[in-house]
Amino acid sequence: MNKKGHVINALVLSVGLAYLTHPTGDATTARAVVGFAVPVVLGALVPDVDTAFGSHRKTFHNLPTLGLFVAYPLYFDNLELVWIGVATHYVLDLLGTKRGLALLYPLDSTEFDLPVGVRVESRYATLVVLLITGVEIAVAAVLAADTPRQLLTDGLRAAGLF
Ligand SMILES: [Zn+2]
Fold it and tell me: Helix 3-21 and helix 82-96: axis angle, to 10°?
């Protein structure tokens, strides 16, 4: 996906996440939108830095890069939400476009892809971005809901793991 698609995805996803975490629809929600949007958009722009430095869809389109952004806040207490942007960039590239990602790079340069998606220049690209973003928000809503969390806790407890 191109930068426009990644920014639209990150902005719409941020609004969705803000409403999921702060559903009042008032100034608190608006503040949450900004709180999500800035780091998530920044994170969504990070992987394509490899168009200038390294090999595109390899150097910064892999799980070690995502792991770095997940771990960074744990050690430096900073950039807590940027990993969401990096992750959603990967989802959009995997589901929304024809070319795959070298998720295991630098260990393996094989590009993984899913048999869906449109060409970056397709007139349906924005529609695909919005559909994928809607699915991401739905997944986030399920993950944020108490019922699945309670089922997981009950399941782990029943299995003697919690
Ligand atoms: Zn990309």
Answer: 120
Tell me the residues surrounding ligand 1 (ion) with CB < 5 Å.
47-48, 93
Q: pTM score, two decimals?
A: 0.88
93 C-alpha to center of ligand 1: Å?
6
Tally of domains in the chain:
1
What domain range includes position 126? 3-158
- Residue 43, pLDDT above cutoff 90: yes
What gap in Å lies between CA 130 and CA 109, rounded to an integer?
29
Helix axes 63-76, 82-96, angle to 10 degrees: 170
Task: Please give the distance, rounded to the nearest whole angstrom, from the Cα atom of residue 91 to the centre of ligand 1.
Answer: 9
